[in-house]
TrEMBL record:
The organism's place on the tree of life at top rank: Bacteria
Lineage, top ranks: Bacteria, Pseudomonadati, Pseudomonadota, Betaproteobacteria, Burkholderiales
Official protein name in the record: Uncharacterized protein
Length: 164
């Protein structure tokens, strides 16, 4: 599992993807990438502005970036677990649509990775959300690494509590 391959204080090997425009306030599936770290394969699910970017979990870890208030969730529909990054905020809020999706799903687990930021006093670069293959939830804080020419460094890997 990805959370066991990352090390606090080490450079971050996780991809940084730019925000994708074009969400229509509904569920979509855009820009998903299959990545590897060591022997682990995982899916990287980008943030889509004004969208609920969703991917079939496929029995692997799913990581998404960059959380500042958005929701990351896993839900089951049609017998398949899906992981999503739900856009929130002024002009891009998909919470009403997310509530409709949840109403038609089972086994819904959701959290806000940004609620678990731990920078240790360093400059925040971003927050990743991680849902593991066995449905565990984590927030991964990445900060500016002053030692290695300002590249990203893992500051914290925090087991996340679910929203109620």
């Amino acid at each position: 599992m990805l959370e066991n391959l990352l090390r606090v204080g080490a450079p971050s090997p996780l991809p940084v993807t730019p925000d994708s425009n074009g969400g229509a306030g509904t569920v979509c599936s855009r820009g998903v990438q299959i990545e590897t770290l060591g022997a682990a394969t995982y899916k990287h699910l980008p943030f889509v502005v004004n969208g609920i970017n969703s991917v079939d979990q496929g029995g692997v870890d799913v990581v998404s970036y960059n959380f500042s208030g958005c929701i990351m969730a896993v839900y089951k529909v049609g017998g398949v677990f899906r992981v999503c990054h739900v856009s929130t905020g002024p002009g891009q809020d998909c919470k009403d649509e997310w509530n409709r999706v949840k109403a038609g799903a089972t086994s819904v687990f959701e959290f806000k990775p940004s609620d678990f930021v731990e920078t240790g006093g360093a400059a925040l670069l971003g927050v990743y959300g991680l849902i593991t293959a066995d449905l565990q939830t984590y927030a991964i804080t990445v900060v500016q690494n002053a030692v290695q020419n300002g590249g990203p460094k893992v500051a914290a890997i925090t087991k996340a509590r679910l929203l109620r």
